[in-house]
Specification:
Chain lengths: ~290, ~325
């Protein structure tokens, strides 16, 4: 393993917390991400990351746990996007854009107060771009609980949810209420975004949500296969990103390492590019 | 990269909420007022409260000193110049600032309010240091303030030659009290030189080397915390093992610059029974510069001698 992992990797407590939390978050993001891509809600997912960002900034202002801030803001923001109505795709798009702008403005205000009136340092960096290496180990149990609740909820509503995504008319005929489905899924999405914001930051969490899922959907056959593929791709991206960031410490004499979020996103991009190339090649042959 | 950072003490949640509300009210009524200068005194502006204190000690009753960052919640990094600061600097005959990239906003304000009669004392220049010096917390070096006080006295004597002798006498008194502080440092050094400590941030590093203590924390880690970027996991692991393995006699934390990394480190120190000492970034209220430094040295000595923590100076 020495060719891949530099010395001290496995015994470092910071790295161990990052590996565990990263894996949990990657699984949730991948599973939720597949539904996001199928429903065509990547933009709503990104808006929720901006809402989560405002929550994270607010949490660091009052000294609360960032996960709680990300989560509360995501639930409130996601609820307001759904409540804003939006039966039609265009209205939904506008509602999403308005909530996104408001959230970004609030973030700017909160981060200004954080830097001018509290002892917290580096909040902008950690809220926007994440810092899985600085997450306190005490966050892990709560993250696991949120992850389990999210996955169980999604599993419970998977049939009506997918039906209403793929064929709203058929779903309505079977008695599925689209608003209830929409709201449930936005809450699931908010929880997933909150988790990934902890690891790679609010702004970058879209990458972890959409990237592995879209790569897997290009390669795999069927939703179950795509979901399993997304889990593998997501966990690989996060864990490989952590290894790369750790190893980058030894790449230069000044020991300036590459931030873990940048490494994770780089691996995600490679996965997406690879899956695109592969599906083109396969189509060319078939 | 310019190392810039300073900000403040934790306050309870309700206090921050009230502060937030008040800030909103203040934004609504932006007309900042500048307190009048007492007649017959020289208006002096200092960027940080510790320099304001030294300027007041040297200038005595012939100066009116204002500290820009007199609010213990001002953060040079996120500091935005208000109209009242610009007006105070425009009116000042003498300005005292740290330099070394720590309070760059002062240069901006001075350039925006040119005044041929104003004199500017920059601690970093008085000491003959480069702007790019990695650790900007110059006031923790016991040789800094006597030199800065000398420069302040020279400028005051030029601005107000009639009270030249008064300023010289006050400077001599300040330097005598600093000599007493140096005796205290020498006594500490004789007892504790070579003991290892860990720090969260480089704020007190100059004092630690004067005290003969060995700072076992990699500078990269301290600089990362100061600059608000994430330290590398290798460095975090190294610092945490200093504390959990009890390889240091105390953890000295910058009480005014906290992050999840420093909070975790303080928690580890508590459970490993390594005493924690708060080093303040700016002079806490109710102190003079000399009494502040003496209180920090007392707190470090208490930690080394009895293992007791001092999380707050009073």
């Amino acid at each position: 393993m020495h060719w891949l992992v530099e010395p001290g990797f496995w015994s470092n407590p910071v790295v161990r917390t990052a590996l565990v939390l990263g894996a949990v978050v990657a699984v949730v993001s991948a599973v939720v991400g597949v539904v996001v891509v199928v429903r065509g809600q990547s933009f709503a997912g990104h808006a929720l990351t901006d809402v989560a960002m405002a929550g994270g900034a607010g949490a660091s202002l009052v000294g609360a746990s960032p996960l709680v801030g990300f989560l509360l803001a995501g639930i409130v923001g996601g609820g307001s996007i759904e409540a804003a109505g939006a039966e039609r795709v265009r209205d939904r798009d506008v509602a999403t854009g308005v909530v996104l702008g408001a959230a970004a403005g609030l973030t700017a205000l909160f981060l200004y107060f954080v830097s001018s009136s509290t002892s917290a340092t580096g909040s902008t960096q950690s809220v926007l771009f994440g810092s899985v290496f600085t997450v306190s180990p005490s966050v892990v149990p709560l993250s696991v609980v949120v992850a389990v609740v999210t996955l169980v909820t999604l599993l419970g509503v998977r049939r009506p949810l997918l039906l209403s995504s793929l064929s709203p008319e058929l779903a309505a005929a079977r008695g599925v209420r689209p608003r209830v489905m929409g709201l449930t899924f936005v809450l699931v999405l908010a929880a997933s975004v909150a988790l990934s914001a902890l690891v790679i930051g609010a702004i970058l969490s879209t990458a972890l949500l959409v990237g592995p899922a879209s790569a897997a959907l290009r390669v795999a056959r069927g939703l179950v296969g795509a979901t399993l593929g997304a889990i593998v791709a997501g966990v690989a991206a996060v864990e490989l990103g952590i290894v790369l960031s750790y190893d980058s410490f030894y790449w230069n004499a000044a020991h300036r390492s590459v931030p873990v979020s940048a490494c994770v996103v780089a691996v995600v991009l490679v996965e997406v590019a690879g899956s695109t190339a592969w599906s083109r090649w396969r189509r060319g042959r078939g | 990269m310019v190392p810039v950072r300073a900000s403040l003490r934790r306050r309870p949640v309700w206090a921050r909420a009230v502060g937030l509300a008040l800030a909103g009210v203040a934004l609504a009524g932006c007309a900042a007022s500048v307190p009048p200068v007492a007649p017959g005194t020289i208006p002096v502006v200092a960027a940080e409260s510790q320099y304001a204190d030294v300027a007041a000690q040297v200038g005595g009753r012939y100066v009116s000193v204002v500290a820009v960052m007199n609010n213990p919640n001002a953060d040079p990094h996120g500091f935005e110049v208000s109209p009242s600061v610009a007006r105070e600097v425009a009116r000042a005959r003498l300005v005292v600032q740290n330099g070394a990239g720590y309070d760059d906003f002062m240069r901006v304000v001075e350039a925006a309010t040119p005044s041929p009669r104003r004199r500017v004392v920059v601690a970093q220049r008085v000491l003959g240091l480069a702007t790019s010096i990695p650790n900007p917390h110059l006031w923790y070096d016991p040789s800094t303030m006597p030199a800065v006080a000398g420069a302040i006295e020279a400028d005051l004597a030029r601005l107000d030659p009639a009270h030249r002798a008064y300023f010289a006498a006050r400077l001599a008194r300040f330097r005598a009290s600093m000599a007493a502080l140096r005796v205290r440092i020498g006594a500490f050094r004789a007892r504790y030189a070579g003991r290892a400590v860990a720090t969260t941030e480089p704020v007190g590093d100059y004092l630690l080397s004067a005290l003969g203590l060995v700072n076992a924390t990699p500078f990269r880690f301290q600089a990362d915390v100061m600059n608000g970027v994430d330290p590398a996991p290798q460095d975090v692991g190294a610092v945490e093992s200093l504390v959990t393995g009890r390889r240091v006699a105390a953890l000295l934390e910058n009480a005014q610059v906290s992050s999840p990394v420093t909070t975790t480190l303080a928690g580890l120190a508590e459970s490993a029974r390594v005493p924690i000492v708060a080093l303040y970034e700016t002079m806490p209220t109710g102190f003079t510069y000399q009494r502040w430094m003496a209180a920090e040295i007392d707190a470090i000595e208490r930690a080394l001698a009895t293992g007791r923590s001092t999380r707050r100076l009073s």
